[in-house]
Design a protein that fits this description.
It contains 5 helices and 4 strands. By secondary structure, the chain is of the alpha+beta class. The chain has one domain. It has a 4-stranded antiparallel β-sheet, covered by helices on one side. The radius of gyration is 15 Å and the shape is globular. The structure holds iron/sulfur cluster. The site of iron/sulfur cluster has 11 residues, from loops.
Length: about 160
């Protein structure tokens, strides 16, 4: 089953996909501060802080899973699309707990109205970082390359995670 999810992820244009242990995923309190002090989308998107799960919640949620697909792409939109589709595929295959986290703020609507319920609840998923995951440490734990980039650098590596059990 995992092999077919990996093939599906590649069909949806992921560059690499790896089955990993959720124990390698690191959460940290400072991640939320980086959203609060540094991201213009803070409090402007329902999938981002302060609306998204707190690092402590994510940490205990990760304990409820024994596998995850870690997905890599050079494009943020590809990650958002892949993770929601893989979550759906996994759910249909019987993994009813499947839950996806992508990268970056949700871009499904031109503007996110945080005063109303989400208009695409089946599609919108929080990013790994919005859930308090230290993406750098987590992906390096699994052998992926990631470095900080300056604003005008184009070569960014994006990652998404689909928890499965
Ligand atoms: S789907 Fe629309 S309303 Fe829902 S989180 Fe994304 S941008 Fe906001």
């Amino acid at each position: 089953m995992f092999n077919s999810l990996i093939s599906k992820a590649l069909e949806f244009k992921a560059e690499d996909t790896l089955i990993i242990s959720p124990k390698t995923i690191i959460t940290a309190e400072w991640v939320r501060l980086k959203c609060q002090y540094g991201c213009p989308k803070y409090s402007k998107c329902l999938t981002c802080p302060p609306y998204s799960p707190h690092p402590e919640q994510t940490k205990s949620m990760l304990l409820g899973y024994d596998k995850a697909l870690l997905i890599h792409s050079k494009e943020c939109k590809v990650i958002q699309n892949v993770v929601r589709n893989i979550e759906e595929e996994a759910f249909k295959a019987g993994f009813y707990k499947a839950f996806a986290m992508g990268a970056g703020p949700c871009e499904l609507c031109e503007e996110c109205d945080v005063n109303k319920p989400c208009v695409h609840p089946y599609l919108a998923r929080p990013s790994m970082e919005a859930c308090g995951i230290d993406v750098y440490a987590s992906v390096r734990n699994n052998g992926f390359f990631i470095e900080t980039v300056s604003e005008n650098q184009r070569k960014v590596n994006y990652f998404g995670l689909v928890l499965i059990e």
